[in-house]
Amino acid sequence: MNKLRYAYALNESKKIVHISQVTKEMKEGGTHFFCISCGDEMIACLGEVNQHYFRHKNVAECNEETYLHKLGKKILKERFDNSKEFNILITQVETCTKEDCPLVDEANCKEYVKTKINFKEYYNICEEEKACDKYIADLLLYSNIQKVEPVMLEICVTHKCSQEKIDSGYRIIEITLNDEEDAIKLMDEELTDSSENIHFYNFKKEKSHNKLLHHDVYVELIHKNGSTYSIGRKEGWSCSNIDIDVDDIDTPYDDVIMRVTTPDYCSNLDVWLLRYAHDKGYLIRNCKVCKFHKYNNFQKEHICTLYKKYGTPHNPMEYEANKCRYFSYVCPEIGHIDEPRHYYVSISSQI
């Protein structure tokens, strides 16, 4: 006797029925059920001890792989035919539309979004084992009302979609079923590329309508007195702020004369900007670029190495270099400081 136990069968109207929907009254009343795979008549086993299931009435050569394959197709087709929505969720990329942006960066200037598409808005027919060019789709979604590219729904139990079919360019959604539990999910869950069991082939990943994207940035400022001031990435600045005039920035210090905006983290962006200023011909007097400056990593403090010899401040404020007779500029070595890969520098007319 065939010992396969199925949770699903077809009723006399060829509709899918779960064993939980079958009552003893239906069984005693002579309601017939049939195997989704081989078509043989099934018996609903509704015992008091074991879990309820369908089994074949007669000895049948039935294949569980074929059963899962046909079950998946039946569930999806019934869902498409009987629902107002048949949604998919696909990951698409929105690209920033700002032109000539100095902060263009592959990682930061794109945004990945989940796009919901209701196939019922484009297709009105779902047909089993339908030819599409030289390929046969398990289920083919197409329209006889509007001109739209068809979509193949492929159920994979053991045999994956052929590479030739994938390379054809036709849009394909391949759904892997390992057991009946996977098939049950198809009844109401949206098809999404986030699922490890579902693969989308030849779907457009770029959104048609891109938009202006804003991402957080790091900002370093140099003030008229030579001091620097940092604005962290999470403090409200974005790449959209790069056009703000440096003279309009409100900070705890006096007038801003130079600003760098970057999406890249640099541990010593202040020193980099001071070097940049020097390379452009602006000598900013700041203790951090003085040959007598030293940073104590253990104490986390800036030290003037002349404090014992000449009585200079032990831990000077960086702007004190403006009045220091011993200030001597030393160019920070590029290999010893982080450099931003993408940046935009604004310089005040006051400098």
Structure characterization notes:
The longest helix has 19 residues, at 64-82. It is elongated, with a radius of gyration of 35 Å. The chain is built from six helices and 19 strands. It is of the alpha+beta class and 351 residues long.
User: What's the shape?
Assistant: elongated
Q: How many DSSP helices?
A: 6
Q: What is the H/E order? A: EEHEEEHEEEEEHEHEEEEEHEEHE
Helix content: 10-25%
On the 0 to 100 scale, the average pLDDT is 87
Percent range for β-strand residues: 25-35%
The termini sit apart by 94 Å
Mind summarizing the main beta sheet? 5 strands, mixed
- Structural class of the secondary elements? alpha+beta
